[in-house]
Amino acid sequence: MNIMSHSIRTAKQKTVVCATVFFVLASFSCMNSGTSVSTPDEIDALPADTEVIGARFLPVKHFPKLARFKQLTALTFHTGWGVGEAAVTDEGLRVISEIGFSDLDTIMLSHCNKITDEGLRYVVKIESLKWIGLSACPGITDAGISTLATATQLETVDLRGCPNITDVGLERMHAMTWLIGIRLDGCPNISDDAVAKLRIALSDCEVTKDDKAWEYANDTS
């Protein structure tokens, strides 16, 4: 093996390791969702330098008040999904995108039934965004993947449990050569063949599809 081949192989190995570590850290970050807010008073009570906020039950009409958190790095609508429906809508995502957060790198939208492909048109405008969680979002389809494919700032996309993403959507992700991680666990309409082709197209990206892990994580019995 010559030096150049060894360097390329080593670089790819480092990329995979980084992607795996990023998955772990991102998952931990989403579980540690910061302080949850659902009313204007709760927003006003938080320090202005708060970096992580959970807002699953915050009405969209109050989203503009989030602008006071200039150092916000993560916004999650995931925590509490087993308790009630998320309030966030496509209009809410438009409001968030227009606030102008400069450090917001993570948005967790898991189990948010009111968001659709339309909302992704606003999310991709957040230039600082690196990690987006869309697991178990029935309103996200192959059309939304086409929108995500324009977001070159993204590094990791979590699509676990999305029932309306198919092999067509995965083919559209072949162009996203900048990604380091894609999660597809529990996507019923994605074939093993499409996953294999995606891994070939994105050889430096960690593509995971562990359906058993998804079933275990969402077992409510």
Short key terms for the protein model shown above:
221 residues, alpha/beta, Leucine-rich repeat, LRR (right-handed beta-alpha superhelix), 37% helix, 10% strand
Topology record:
Blueprint: H1 3-31, E1 35-36, H2 40-45, E2 52-54, E3 74-76, H3 90-99, E4 106-108, H4 117-123, E5 131-133, H5 142-148, E6 156-158, H6 167-172, E7 181-183, H7 192-201, E8 206-208, H8 211-217
Parallel strand pairs: 1-2, 2-3, 3-4, 4-5, 5-6, 6-7, 7-8
Helix pairs in contact: 3-4, 4-5
Describe the overall structure.
The structure is a single chain. This protein has one domain (about 5-145, about 205-215): Leucine-rich repeat, LRR (right-handed beta-alpha superhelix) (Alpha-Beta Horseshoe). An eight-stranded parallel sheet has the order 1-2-3-4-5-6-7-8, with helices on both faces. It is α/β, with parallel strands linked by helices and about 220 residues long. The chain is built from eight helices and eight strands; from the N terminus they run αβαββαβαβαβαβαβα.
Rounded to the nearest angstrom, the radius of gyration is: 18 Å
User: Count the helices. How many?
Assistant: 8
* Number of individual domains: 1
The portion of residues forming beta strands comes to 5-15%
CATH fold-type name: Leucine-rich repeat, LRR (right-handed beta-alpha superhelix)
What is the total tally of β strands? Answer: 8
Reading off the top of the CATH hierarchy, the class is best stated as Alpha Beta
CATH architecture: Alpha-Beta Horseshoe
Order of secondary-structure elements: HEHEEHEHEHEHEHEH
Average pLDDT: 88
Name the shape in a single word.
globular
Report low-confidence residues grouped into runs of 5 or more: 1-31
End-to-end distance, in Å? 53 Å
Spatial arrangement of strands, main beta sheet: 1-2-3-4-5-6-7-8
Proportion of residues in helical segments? 25-40%
